[in-house]
Amino acid sequence: MPVAKTEKEKNKVFKFLKKSKHTKFTQDTNWGKVKCNWSQDFVYVEENKEIKACISVIGINNECGYFLYAPRGPVCDFYDVDLVKKLIDEADELQKKYDAFMLRIDPEVNFDERLIHQYKKLGLSFRTFDDDIYSFIQPRYNMILDLNGFDEESLLMSFSQKARYNVRKSCRNNTLTKIEKPDEKNIDDFFKLTKIMAKRQNISHRPKEYFKRLAENYDVLFANSFYQNNLLSSCLLLKYKDKIYYLYAASGNEKRNLMPTYNMIWHCLKYALNHNYRYFDFGGTFSLSKEDGLYRFKEGFCHPNKYTAFIGELDKVYKKENYDKFNKK
């Protein structure tokens, strides 16, 4: 069966996901527990009773209809176009189950024009560099630092001059960062700063229960930066396979001139380095302009221009009218 239904089938899929080098944390079985208001199904391709490819598909009903999404899928070599096509075709069962209008996949694969052309030849839609950069579910540009070959000194020297200055300034100012396992106090403190930052920047934020679910279902750490026992900044780190994700961060309004966020990042990077993680993923940015504060901050640690341009979004369209409406939102 293409969609895992029985406990035996699900357990087989879960073992495959745990073992595969292609599994990202949003393709993990636990992602459905974090996104608990979405459906979650597992589609797979099997040859000689052995799973060759899998995709975790979450879904939700919105104003355009039922939306199916496989964040950072599929779990296989995306260059094996025939295998991926089989997997996508098997997911047609979910279209029938939910009366969905589309399936979207945004693989963690570098931009490759030839590969895009191969998928388009199969009749699939591909949203990539020529689409509005702000229209993607997740940013195409990601700041991912490869830690291979660095020690602490050479890592610090790889930063931009401004970032190095701010890290050293934070140390001179006696800013202290602690990296701790999640507990109720850490989550509460992080959420308080999240609300303060969201108000300052006039943006929305996740509810506290969302961060609790992340901490309950993944290997999560909190990095907290203090000055004289006052919490100034905090971030949520997620450890998965050979990568640490700088997943969420927040800062207060006080003592920002002490550069607590730079101190916090520096200690997070040292933790990743000293615990033999290969990559530190700062997350996405929609812009590569120094005028964009988020890009400028992350680029200071991924200097110069150590960003990854992912390939984009691969869509299988079931209802064209609904799909066009969704992309125009």
What can you see in these coordinates?
With 329 residues, the protein is α+β, with helices and mostly antiparallel strands. The chain has twelve helices and 13 strands. The chain has helices at residues 7-19, 31-34, 81-90, 92-98, 113-121, 152-158, 161-172, 184-201, 208-217, 260-274, 293-301, 320-327, and strands at residues 39-47, 50-62, 65-71, 100-106, 125-127, 141-146, 176-180, 219-227, 230-240, 243-251, 279-285, 308-309, 313-317. The protein has a seven-stranded mixed β-sheet. A six-stranded mixed β-sheet has the order 1-2-3-4-13-5, with helices on both faces. Strand 8 (219-227) and strand 9 (230-240) form a beta hairpin. The longest helix has 18 residues, at 184-201. The mean pLDDT is 96.
Helix content: 25-40%
Ends: how far apart? Answer: 35 Å
Largest sheet features? 7 strands, mixed
Q: What order do the helices and strands follow?
A: HHEEEHHEHEEHHEHHEEEHEHEEH
Strand content: 25-35%
- Given the structure, what is the number of helices? 12
The count of β-strands is 13
Shape: globular
Strand order in the sheet with the most strands:
7-8-9-10-11-6-12
The rounded Rg comes to: 21 Å
Low-confidence stretches: none
Average pLDDT number: 96
SSE layout and pairings?
Layout: H1 7-19, H2 31-34, E1 39-47, E2 50-62, E3 65-71, H3 81-90, H4 92-98, E4 100-106, H5 113-121, E5 125-127, E6 141-146, H6 152-158, H7 161-172, E7 176-180, H8 184-201, H9 208-217, E8 219-227, E9 230-240, E10 243-251, H10 260-274, E11 279-285, H11 293-301, E12 308-309, E13 313-317, H12 320-327
Parallel strand pairs: 3-4, 10-11
Antiparallel strand pairs: 1-2, 2-3, 4-13, 5-13, 6-11, 6-12, 7-8, 8-9, 9-10
